[in-house]
User: Fold this.
Amino acid sequence: MINFSEFNDLARRRRAIRHFQPDPIDKETLLRLLETAQWAPSGYNLQPTHYYAVTNEVLKNSLYSACFKQKQILEAPATIVFTGDRRVFENHFEKVIRMELETGAINEEYEKKLRQFVPLAFAHSPMGLGWFWKAALAPLLRLATPVPDFPAAHKRFWLAKQVLLNAMIFMLAATAEGLATVPMEGFDESRVKRALGIPRSHIVPVLIPVGYAVTADLKKTRLPLQDVLHWDRW
Assistant:
């Protein structure tokens, strides 16, 4: 088992690398990294994150244009496009419940709780009003009692949080494998989706080129912890 010192070293070694060597990455390595990324935490274990691995040169050129011609898209042997499924409840809920019951990850009592809350959190009803009633009523309800944010009312925000957890695990796994990554938010999402045929029901919070770094010894700084730490009170 990895100890704290080893994990601390791994986290500190990760860098945002913008120039890559042309050496290819074998498919088995990419699959291993993505399988590791799947073990990131997931709200209600719905696992809304999808992965689009781009290695084809024609697709890379289309992606390059949608990413404002940032060279790392062309230099890296692969770019992983992380997407979040807006229809994850409809697509995964029953499947996840069934798997968790079969493996003993949850019991029937917890299943009952999930079936009571999760459909309510994601439903776009009642009376055809969509997510509006959740967004409108939540501030009023909070005057009397704590109220969670409903994914139905803040779907993009909820999905982005879920996807970025997977993306972080992927980057750490790549670092452990001796590979370099760079998380990218600078792109035209609609053009990325068109270039790759990503369904309209998905959002694209981040792209991550991955490969072997041209320069491995890049400096990285962080603010002192006391500048951003608030203990017990702000």
